[in-house]
Amino acid sequence: MPGTLSERPQLQHLTAQLDELKQKGTYFRLRVLDDVQAPVCTYDGKRVINLASNNYLGLTAHPKLREAAIEAIKMYGVGSGAVRTIAGTMKIHMELEEKIARFKNVEACVVFQSGFTANAGTVSSILGKEDFIISDELNHASIIDGARLSRAKIKVFRHKDVSHAEEILKEIASEPGRKLIITDGVFSMDGDIGPVDQLCDLAEKYGAIMMVDDAHASGVLGRNGRGSVDHFGCHGRVDIQVGTLSKAIGALGGYVCGSRDLIDFLYHRARPFLFSTSHPPSVTATCIAAFDLLESEPERIERLWDNTRYFKAELGGMGFDIGGLTTPASETPITPILVGDGKRTMEFSRALFDAGVMATGIAFPTVPEGKARIRTIMTSEHTREQLDQALETLERIARKMGILG
Questions:
Q1: Which residue from 173, 228, 345, 350 could staple onto 185, CB 3.0 to 4.6 Å apart?
Q2: Whole-angstrom Cα distance, residue 124 to residue 134?
Q3: Which residues lie in coiled coils (predicted)?
């Protein structure tokens, strides 16, 4: 008999697929953070400039968030002990949802355990097999999974191609069932902004439900970080707004905003809400404190955009392909450096890490074959000195490897 689990034959097909990834050069090991998520931090024992974090506004270690977490633990303990619909809805959960609803200028809000479950749980619960989903081809995986779980008919339009989306709507106009248009506010791999205003026009013209996933727009776009809906002045035109508490907000979770009836319906039917224990009080309190900071410290968002403009201009001046040719042009703090080949991209990422820059390589299946890239993300807390050092390292390693001529 086999002596260890790794010798058992039942999962050998997984080992074979891992071996294939190693041969292709796209296999990776998790980098382990040894200290605080910050512009300069320690991964695997090595001090590096961090260009890979979603901590856009530097809130993960903000003193006010730390204090809020500690006070919440003292007052409420470390856990809620149940799902929201049984015994796990605490007063602090309601306070957070009410704060987000006011911030987003909507009637109501519900908080989920993650942005992924917010998307997947919402799409899968509000539609059925007679309905249609009109989805951008580069929408996030959580939207795709939610669409599949809904059993609705999925129609994919070319990236940001509003005319193509309208062609689809015309084709299915006479079909029974509801129609849902869905787009990312900011696309996570290319950093471009979705055409929210134009898709709202289509939704109104064809009587469709309008949904926006603002995970990478929350805390980044719009007034005080209110997102793409605010950025485009589309308040009252988007039926479902999804956001995250795990990126610019600095903590963990996702949320859905909309009408009171939408949120009450999700209370009754969204499976991640119904079957997952609610947020720990400490996390909930940090999120409340973070929304207070968005209002009281708008200079963080200004610094984020100052750093973003500088970094993009310098990368472009060095000759890096940062989108706009074979991929969409970045318009946000997410700036991809296009390499193309997956193996070469991963080698570039490893060489950068060895030289003191944490910049993650992303390859198939996260992005299409031939469009592998280093994805860089700016934060408000990077100093100009840190950015210049990272830029020098990027250029030096890229020229050494022949990525730059």
A1: 228
A2: 14
A3: none
